[in-house]
Amino acid sequence: MPHLLIAEDDDLLRDGLGTLLRQAGHSVATAADGRAALALLEASRFDGVILDLGLPLVSGMEVLRSIRLRLNALPVLILTARDGVEDRVQGLNAGADDYLTKPFSIDELEARLGAMLRRARLPAFGGSLELPAGSAGRLRIDPLQPLAWLGDEPLELTQREWALLSLLVSHAGQVVSREAVLGAWQAEPAEGGAIGSNALEVYVHRLRRKLAGSSLNIRNVRGLGYLLEAPGA
Ligand code: CA
Description:
single chain, alpha/beta, Rossmann fold, Arc Repressor Mutant, subunit A, 12 strands, elongated, binds calcium ion
């Protein structure tokens, strides 16, 4: 059952959405301001977020940035005002997966939300990556910060290396597309300029070196992407 977070300060809308989505079989938590949303995101794992950009205390945009920094591929649907074109553009640039403008119909919400959750389960979109405390062989990845351990040895990772490794581990044995990695990196703070395929090669190379000595191998699947091979995992 998908576990959803609704962050919306309009009581009627928040309660209405909550009731509807529960009836549709989702498990739902709600937050009336940005600070409460961040606290809930810290406390539990969600499969998707419906996020009003105009939230009190901490803005929806700040909540979105925080999500993208820490839980890269958590699907986020933003809600914006009808005339909030700039908000939508900013939100999408900050890593929102989709948006709805208020007022919206429930049918449209269900359709968009359903599509977003389906996409998130497809490895090609890199989505089901909720950065679980994944494990492959003796590799452990911290779900919230750029840390990992090979056995008891800590791995020093940059934010992007950690996001890449988390994506590979959560899809171990499956090919992860380049697009999925670049998508997961979208809202990361710049780490040496623009992100391109060449940069990705460099990060994969660096990660391979850091994993050297483990049983893990990152295989380049020509034209498709990367595959983490974890014998015995
Ligand atoms: Ca609002």
